[in-house]
Amino acid sequence: MMLNNKGRPTQPVAVDNGEISIETFTGNMGLRLESPLIFEQGMPGRIGVDMADPRPVKVRLGGLERKGPIGLPDLSEPQVLRHFVRLSRQNYAIDAGFYPLGSCTMKHNPRINEKVARLAGLGDLHPLQPTSTVQGALELIDDLAHWLKTITGMPAVAMSPAAGAHGELCGVMAIRAAHEANGESRTRILVPESAHGTNPATAALCGYKVEAVPARKDGRMDLEAFAEKLGPDVAGVMLTNPNTCGLFETDVKKIADMVHEVGGYFYCDGANLNAILGRVRPGDLGVDAMHINLHKTFSTPHGGGGPGAGPVVLSDALAPFAPIPYVVHNDSGFDLVEQAEGQAQKSFGRMKGFHGQMGMFIRALAYMQSHGADGLRQIAENAVLNANYVRVGLNDKLHSPFDGICMHEALFDDSTLKGTGVTTLDLAKAMIDEGYHPMTMYFPLVVHGAMLIEPTESESRQTLDEFIGAMRHLLDRAAAGDTDYFLGAPHYAPRRRLDETAAARNPVLRYTPPAPTEGEETAFSAAS
Question: Where is the region Disordered (predicted)?
Answer without folding.
Answer: 504-528
